[in-house]
Design goal:
Strand content: 15-25%
Number of strands: 31
Oligomer: single chain
Largest sheet: 8 strands, mixed
Radius of gyration: 43 Å
Helix content: 10-25%
Number of helices: 14
Structural class: alpha/beta
Strand order of the largest sheet: 16-15-17-18-24-23-22-20
Distance between the termini: 52 Å
């Protein structure tokens, strides 16, 4: 027997009160009429050595009343396990979810995971449905619940163990949140609170993971879990907590040396519970004059950035030494290929004249280590032989175009290119009208005054998104000496004004044309028109126009395990053979490479294309997750998750279960009824004994 409020059992001490009262001897209150006491000698009463209990039946009734009331207030209930219904065994479902991310390769974590998975299967009842799932950045059903249902009940455990023996950890990241949700949705509850005869949930999800801090818990916030589901978390723990990881940082063109060397920037991070601070970075494959081993100091819970010069076309490997876990200690880097871009210029400007537009264009788009620009210049009247698929990244026109050129440019723009069209004179509007297939456009020279300013700029537009910050959105220092007037009411219906002058006339107008667009500037960047070419806004603006115009070209030379890589294959090549780091070959039907399951260098056969794939950086954050994330996300955790659930939460759940069981039994009612009966009997007996005896 158990009690819901055991402290009330201290009231049993009150049983001593009736015993004490019975031991107290009282002087009688009866008086006997006597004639005279003057002739009698007074004698004191004789005192006995101990008091004797009298009326034992009455004493017993009073003690029973107090004892029954004490038991009733303590709320007793019987812990009698109800025998399970054999029919519930086939309805019970257990899904074991095992973490196979890269962090599970530390020490003996995988051996611990296999042991815990086998133990969870052994705890399953006969005939119970067993499912096995693994997860990294994706969920992998090894033995789904539907497949387990189709198996005979006697073969489910054997099939589970066979599937478990074939598993091994991978190199991807841990998408813990999406995996939990996907597995929980596979339980068939029908919207009912599925429980067996003992009140235990019929559906159980066993999670076996190292619960690393880098695990993604996306989607768990506010998720509605199926009724009758409990999640049993069984973490595996590493003996050595120190883990430092190395990851690649984005390249900065300003840090490139004048000799063409690349500033390879990487970050070394250390876990908060680490016991080591001194590490070394071994550089392999670099052709520059750098030390082969670099010392680095990283305190626990912090990170440090290291810059290593690298050059050439070979693979540079950075190996981190001095770490307890070496699964994330190698960083591979490949120099990205140099991209060749074609720019088409239509105009009569001379490239060496600083008073003309082409002079500034060629100085903006200069060759770098990553980009090589090729200018194609043509004058008005010259025929254009451009196909819509021509790899032209940007088209700039500063002197107008004739009808023949407009006819050749229109399919190119409709295919997705951008034409930057300036109006140096009102007469240049004829070429714009030819491109738009409209009549004459009412564009004229704006009235002259000292200067004009840009008063309204749409910073939500992609061309000006880089200037949205308050530190860069000041255009008041750019003076425009003259511009062409194009009233808003005269614009095409689908035109959009991106920037305007202080006289409310448009400065930059975007006109969609097919998949591409035409950007019309009513003022140029020559010194005769404005100070735009001399401002800090000129170069970012032109690069924004070019990046928006050119077709997307995959140039990913660095990736992490699990990434889907778009290979820079020519359009006429429908497939290719990719050689993985372990030497195996896989064939892809398109330019998409999805099977990046191993860290290393992937190469496309018979092509110079190579991609370096590294371990996801979040896997280096191996510090175990605390209790707070699981409590805040309100997961239906089971009582067996002792390593994760706090003792306070376990006690609260125990009290709720005991209260529910006591509420069903309600033994206190019978105790109160029995106590009332004994009170009535005690009252009757006490009254009977209090009557004076007959003479």
């Amino acid at each position: 027997m158990s009690f819901l409020a055991p402290l009330f059992m201290l009231g049993i001490l009150a049983v001593g009160m009736p015993i004490l009262f019975h031991l107290i001897r009282r002087t009688t209150r009866e008086r006997q009429v006597f004639s005279s006491l003057m002739f009698l000698q007074p004698t004191p009463p004789r005192i006995t050595r101990q008091n004797r209990l009298e009326n034992l039946l009455l004493l017993l009734l009073r003690c029973l009343v107090i004892g029954l009331l004490t038991f009733a207030f303590a709320r007793p209930f019987l812990q009698r396990p109800t025998p399970a219904d054999p029919a519930d065994a086939s309805a019970r479902q257990t899904a074991v979810l095992v973490d196979i991310s890269a962090s599970m390769q530390r020490e003996d974590l995988w051996a611990q995971a296999l042991t815990k998975a086998e133990a969870s299967a052994d705890q399953a009842k006969a005939g119970e449905v067993l499912g096995l799932f693994t997860f990294d950045q994706r969920l992998h059903p090894i033995l789904s619940l539907e497949e387990s249902k189709k198996l005979p009940p006697t073969e489910r455990l054997t099939r589970f163990r066979q599937a478990l023996a074939s598993l091994k950890p991978g190199w991807g990241s841990a998408a813990l949140g999406s995996a939990l949700i996907a597995v929980s949705e596979g339980f068939e509850t029908g919207g009912q609170d599925a429980r067996d005869a003992t009140g235990q949930p019929l559906h159980r999800l066993v999670l076996i993971s190292d619960l690393a801090e880098g695990s993604h818990l996306n989607g768990l916030q506010g998720h509605e879990w199926p009724k009758g589901l409990e999640i049993d978390i069984r973490p595996v723990l590493a003996k050595k907590p120190t883990n430092a990881g190395i990851q690649l940082l984005p390249q900065n063109a300003e840090e490139e040396a004048a000799t063409g060397e690349v500033a390879l920037r990487c970050r070394v991070s250390n876990t908060a519970d680490a016991q080591r601070e001194q590490f070394q970075i071994e550089v392999e494959g670099s052709t520059t004059n750098v030390p082969s081993v670099l010392d680095i100091y990283v305190p626990p819970g912090q990170s440090r950035t290291v810059t290593v010069p690298a050059t050439g076309t070979q693979v540079t490997r950075l190996r981190l030494q001095g770490d307890d876990a070496d699964f994330d200690n190698i960083l591979r880097w490949l120099p990205p290929p140099r991209e060749k871009l074609k720019l088409l210029y239509l105009g009569t400007d001379a490239a060496a004249d600083p008073n003309q537009s082409l002079y500034y264009l060629q100085r903006v788009f200069t060759d770098t280590r990553l980009r090589e620009f090729q200018w194609i210049t043509q004058k008005p009247g010259e025929p254009l032989s451009l196909a819509p698929t021509e790899e032209v990244s940007l088209v700039v026109a500063t002197a107008g175009v004739d009808e023949a050129q407009a006819k050749s440019l229109r399919p190119l723009i409709e295919a997705g290119r951008t034409l930057l069209y300036t109006l140096p004179k009102p007469e240049a509007a004829r070429g714009l009208a030819a491109l738009l297939n409209t009549g004459d456009l009412p564009i004229q020279e704006a009235p002259r005054r000292n200067f004009h300013l840009l008063s309204q700029v749409d910073f939500q537009h992609p061309l000006f998104a880089s200037f949205a910050d308050s530190r860069f959105n000041d255009f008041t220092k750019i003076h425009f000496w003259k511009h062409r007037m194009w009233r808003i009411n005269d614009l095409p219906a689908n035109a959009k004004v991106i920037a305007s002058f202080d006289d409310e006339s448009p400065a930059i107008v975007e006109i969609p044309l097919g998949k591409g667009s035409i950007l019309v500037m009513t003022s140029g960047w020559t010194p005769a028109d404005s100070q735009l070419a001399l401002s800090t806004k000129f170069v970012p603006f032109l690069y924004s126009v070019m990046d928006r115009s050119r077709p997307p070209r995959p140039s990913m030379a660095q990736a992490v395990v699990g990434d889907s890589i778009l290979l820079p294959l020519p359009p006429e090549q429908s497939g290719a053979t990719v050689i993985k780091p372990d030497g195996t070959e896989i064939k892809i039907t398109g330019p998409q490479l999805s099977e990046t399951t191993l860290p290393g260098v992937y190469s496309v056969k018979d092509t110079p294309i190579r991609i370096a794939v590294n371990v996801p950086p979040e896997e280096s954050r191996t510090s175990p997750l605390g209790l707070d994330p699981f409590e805040k996300l309100l997961l239906p955790l089971s009582k067996k998750s002792g390593a994760v659930i706090a003792p306070q939460q376990q006690e609260q759940r125990r009290i709720l279960a005991a209260s529910e069981l006591e509420n069903r039994q309600k033994l206190w009612r019978w105790l109160m009824a029995a106590g009332l009966c004994f009170v009535i009997a005690e009252t009757w007996l006490a009254g009977r004994l209090a009557r004076p005896r007959a003479a």
